[in-house]
User: What shape does this take?
Amino acid sequence: MACVRGGGEDVVSRATAGKGPPLQVLLDRYMFGTVAGGIVKIAVVVNLKAGDQPRQFTEGCVWEGRSMGFIVDVFVTGGDEQRCRDLLARIAQADYDGLVFSNSGNSIGDDALSYDTLKPVADRGMRIVTFEASPSRGGRIISGINETFQDDSGLARLSLDTLISCGSGDRPPKIIRIGTEAGIPFMVRRNRVFDDYLSEGKIEEVGLINLRDLENPEAAARELASVLSRFPPGTVDAVWSPFEECAAGCVEALAAAGREDIKLFSIGISNEGIRLMQRYSRIWLASAAVDLQLAGTVNMRILAARLAGEIPPATFSFGPQLVMATDLNRDVNMGNISVMVPGWEGGSGLFDDYPWMEELKTVESRYLRIAPFVQAAE
Assistant: This one.
């Protein structure tokens, strides 16, 4: 028997009507023809080893997707190529409406892997947004994909400019560079800036530690430890690591050798990096980084815009922020770093100025709903 009050009016219906149309009605209205029955299902696939950085990215995706009433399933494939292929093959046959995909980018051939794995998904008509992945093979690309990246050139410039500003100023700083011989796209872009600064006389390279790839970043620390004896105090000002996972080992190698005269500057940040910057604040002075949670948030916004028939830019780059050891205290972590670092989480206006998107979020916050299931790993 219905619960009624006065004139036979259904109190539940009246309360619901006061909140406006249910979310499914709005989703069906704004995404008509791209989703079924007002239910939006998104897969987020991150082909990275589990850790702080993929967690930051996926949290941004999930929180933003849920805020608009989407069902968001997350799969982390650990950098395993075959596992990633198999998973995306299954997703291509499933009832997902969209896909956010991020690849490791740490090995040669990752763009070809992205092409091979995403092509069946795209052929099914699924909307796709990628982060740090540019799917191509032999000059072939997949049309209709929105690609987002970290601004690698901006990250390198910010890191190197900070390194230079921390020097004596009477001569170019002498630097040991951590690099890789492999043609990994993001490292190529970052090292190109380093080479430009070299040719302009802004810096001097006194040593190069070349890694075969980035799958074993601890190799950088071992190599650095083995060459430090060749550089007496005064002959090296800094180590520059354009990859944070290499920097973590390098700062411990410098500390173990008692080389506080050599400073460390890097690209990227994580909870482990924050902990080490605090512990070795006299060595690891700064790191340029992108807010990866914001990257996940924006990737989900772009995908939502595609589902709603909007035409966001085909490519987008996230600008860098500077994290200084002096900005940090013992209570800071990736969850609250925005309190310490100016500009962190400055995502207002990044693809969130669609009126329908705000309406979805407003309605979603009014209705009591059970949180959608999220697959933490595959």
Notes: Confidence is low (pLDDT under 50) at residues 1-9, 11-16, 370-378.
